[in-house]
Write a structure and sequence with these properties.
28 strands; Neuraminidase; globular; 4-stranded antiparallel β-sheet; mainly beta
């Protein structure tokens, strides 16, 4: 009896220590510009699904501006168009729209800019990843849009469709076809990693020319499995960081998909970003909880080994508060752009941190 009591007390102590560790993450002070770019009067932002910057400081926004529907007879409504890609200069002045009326723009999910300033768009419902050169010309297509794609009339968020297919038949493990992809990243050799994370629950790897190499992951809770893959980032050593909010963790793999470690106790991480430079940092949002637990809405700043250096922000609608963060751009280290689905806006954040 004494032994059982000691075991229970030990377990309680460890659980308490974990709670203390979570609550002891320091707050990082920061400022916010809640209107960092200026849209023309005839354009509304809508859901800011993706935001990214290039080496010159230009800002790219991939936004869900609406989902107009068409109903034919008694069929369920179909959606067409509704996502747009905009560019602004470093002062926030509107420059141009890219890929207007593009065949692959249906439901915006993410935009990223690679080291060569190519612009990569991830579209959830066309199941495609599209590469544009800096001049806005299409250079590479990954995945394929179905000939008759059915899209919900209501806006989607990254958690709402978890576990439901919606891509091409046969898309999944060891395939170059996607089912509701979420993010894209690259390693130093130019290999491309796609988070094929909502309809499927895996990571697909391609070479720099778009040739499929391999994929890994399936739906589940074990190491190497995912509830969903909501976001992805690659560090300078080629390690792949996959946000798995349904399992409340970020899993870390080498470039061939071998499991290395996981980062937990940061809520339900959704949007992720790794800063450039000699000392890289990992940023992860907890503003898209899968339930009401751990729903603080904050963003964490972490060492690559998962050590929490601090957190900032909370759920809400005011500046310095967040509503469903779907994208983080951290090219500036302590200067971040954040795209919010829930609040239909961008924020430019400046962290007052070492």
């Amino acid at each position: 009896m004494r032994h059982i009591t000691k075991a229970v007390l030990t377990a309680s102590f460890l659980a308490g220590a974990l709670m203390v560790a979570q609550s002891s993450v320091p707050e990082i002070s920061f400022t916010s510009n809640a209107e960092p770019v200026k849209f023309p009067l005839n354009i509304s932002l809508g859901e800011a699904a993706g935001v990214a910057t290039d080496s010159k400081g230009n800002v790219f926004v991939y936004t869900r501006t609406g989902h107009p529907t068409i109903t034919i007879g008694t069929a369920r409504p179909f959606a067409h168009g509704g996502s747009r890609l905009f560019e602004f200069n470093k002062l926030g002045t509107f420059v141009r729209e890219i890929g207007q009326d593009s065949y692959g723009f249906m439901v915006a999910q993410q935009v990223r800019v690679d080291p060569q300033d190519n612009i990569w768009v991830v579209d959830q419902m066309s199941t495609m990843v599209i590469k544009f050169d800096p001049n806005g010309r299409v250079q590479l297509l990954l995945g394929r849009k179905a000939e008759a794609e059915r899209v919900p009339a209501a806006p989607l968020n990254a958690a709402a469709g978890a576990g439901r297919g919606g891509g091409l038949p046969g898309a999944g493990a060891q395939s170059d076809l996607f089912s509701r992809p979420t993010d894209v990243a690259w390693d130093a050799a130019g290999n491309i990693y796609v988070a094929d994370g909502l309809g499927n629950a895996r990571i697909a790897k391609f070479d720099k020319n778009g040739k499929f190499i391999r994929s890994w992951g399936s739906r589940g809770t074990a190491t190497g499995q995912f509830n969903t893959v909501a976001g992805i980032a690659v560090d300078a050593k080629g390690n792949v960081y996959a946000a798995d909010p349904g399992n409340k963790r970020i899993q870390v793999f080498d470039g061939d998909g071998m499991y290395k470690s996981q980062i937990a106790n940061i809520g339900a991480p959704q949007a992720v970003c790794i800063s450039p430079g000699a000392h890289q940092y990992l940023f992860a949002s907890n503003s898209n909880p899968v339930n009401d637990i751990d729903s603080g809405g904050e963003i964490y700043k972490l060492e690559l080994d998962g050590t929490a250096l601090g957190k900032f922000g909370k759920a809400g609608k005011l500046p310095k508060e967040f509503g469903t963060v779907n994208a983080i751009d951290c090219r500036g280290g302590n200067e971040l752009f954040v795209g919010e689905l829930g609040n239909w806006r961008l924020q430019k954040l400046t962290l007052n941190a070492k």
